[in-house]
Amino acid sequence: MSHLGERLSALVDGELSGAELDRAHAHLAACEPCRGEAAELRALKQKLRGLITGAPAEAAMTSRLIAMTGPGGPVPPRRRLLRVVPGRRPVVQASGPAYSRPGSRRSRSGGVTGRRRRYLVLGAVALVVSVGTAAFTAGGGGDEAPGPRITPPVEMYSMEHAIITGEVPYPGPAAQPSSPGPGSDSKAP
Amino acid sequence: MFTPVTRRRDGRSPLLVAAALAMAVPGFLVSACGGQTASAQNDAVTAAGRAAAVGPAVRGRVPATARRPAAARAVRLLAQAAQAAIGTSYHGEEIVTRWSDGGGSVLVSNIWHVSGGQTVTQTMDAGASVSSQPYLSSDTDGRAPEGVLGVTAPLVRLLESHYVVAYAGGGSAGNRTAQVVEAWRADGSLAARFWLDDATKLPLEREVFDPGRHVISQDVFIDVSFASQAPVSASARTSADPPGPWSGPLSHRELLALRTRGWQVPAQLPGGLTLFTGAETEAGTGTVLDLAYADGLSVVSVFEQRGKLPAAMAGWRRTTVNGHAVFVAEPDGRSLTWSSHGMVYTVMADAPAQTVHAVVGALPHDGPTGFWKRMSRGLVRVASWVNPFH
Fold first, then answer.
1. Would you say the ipTM is above 0.85?
2. Contact B147/A172, CB-based, under 8 Å?
3. Is residue A10 less than 8 Å (CB to CB) from chain B?
4. Which of chain B's residues have a Cβ under 8 Å away from the Cβ of A151?
């Protein structure tokens, strides 16, 4: 049984109609691998559409990322530590390495920029990886060549070859019994 | 029908070497004394003897002085043999033995031929019982002329242009006396030896050697009898009397013109194989094109049909030839097939393995899908999914 191949993408995209759609559905009903592949493609497509239209979770994440990019954006309070040392001015410390120099306003703003940059890089990497994975998955299966599936009619070819060569025609593969190959020292190379 | 064989024959049999030495030494003495009395036949045999007896640098080279008369006689004999295969009525048993990478095979057939008419070939089982439908062919349908043991007029012409042919003296094949003709490569290696019936010139035996001087095929025609009528069976006549499905032979120009219709028609293939004929037919799945390439000894038929191969086929196994994934017909490995860019190629070859490998490598194949090709194809598909206007 031949699988749906590229027609599966067309089916998921809703491009099939009429008899072709019926045939595809009939094949899906009987073919577990194609059903699985169709489900994967649909899931992938939904996810991608979600990315574009903005699913709630992703939207929240996006708004947080945008907020981070604003000048002097808020730093999550839980990551700020106020340590009071007797006899000294209170210093602001943070867990990140950018805050290792206490009391420095410059280092604080630099830390925020670094974090923002890190988020941006992570976001970009995540986007590239997602799109790349989706493209790699969707690009599988090869180009479907047009035309019918053919098993070469060897007997007919053999007859024709025999006429040309002036030789006895060989029977086709189905008519031939298997012949074990001789040892390496007993045959011509 | 097919019987595996496990023997290996070397091109130089001890008897041939001894005979060659026996003739080469006096020949050398005669020529050293300045005598010019050796006959063309002796010259040729002496040359052959030298070929088998001396070192690899000049092994097998036929001297130019001895080549001409011996070659002329050889050419004449081969032409007579091709004609005899059509014009003589005969019956005999043909034993075709092939050695290849995957092993060997023996095909035993009964052949009846009526002068100027039909040929019936009936393949026999190893136990000599009739096992297959008779194959009947006819010379009268305008198709390529038939021959015996690969000796046809077009192939003889190619043989003479690709090889040095030389008459090598008398001999015997089976219980009949014969004339021996040899074909030599330009590098001085023996390519083939023919035994032609002394009386009728019908080919009785043929040995083909690869460049390594190993026999790769041996065809023997035994128990030959010459008669005016052939016992063509009624069933054979009925089964094959309608004209064959293939068109008449296409000319070289017609074949090359097929390129404009998208067919792959190389004028040459590796191994010195020249496109010399072709035909086409209509199958249930579309047009099939047959392109025949030969150098006179090696013959390769390339069948092309638009379509693609199924994932698996009964009687075929996957293998790799010259770095390309192909299917090979079991068990003799004589037919190879693969599909590429919407075309199914099937190669049927009577040629040394290295020639077949080179031919497979020269024809189109699908390259492996690279990373970037797959990514770009995927990006296009993904873009089509998220395109709101799609």
1. no
2. no
3. no
4. 309-310, 313
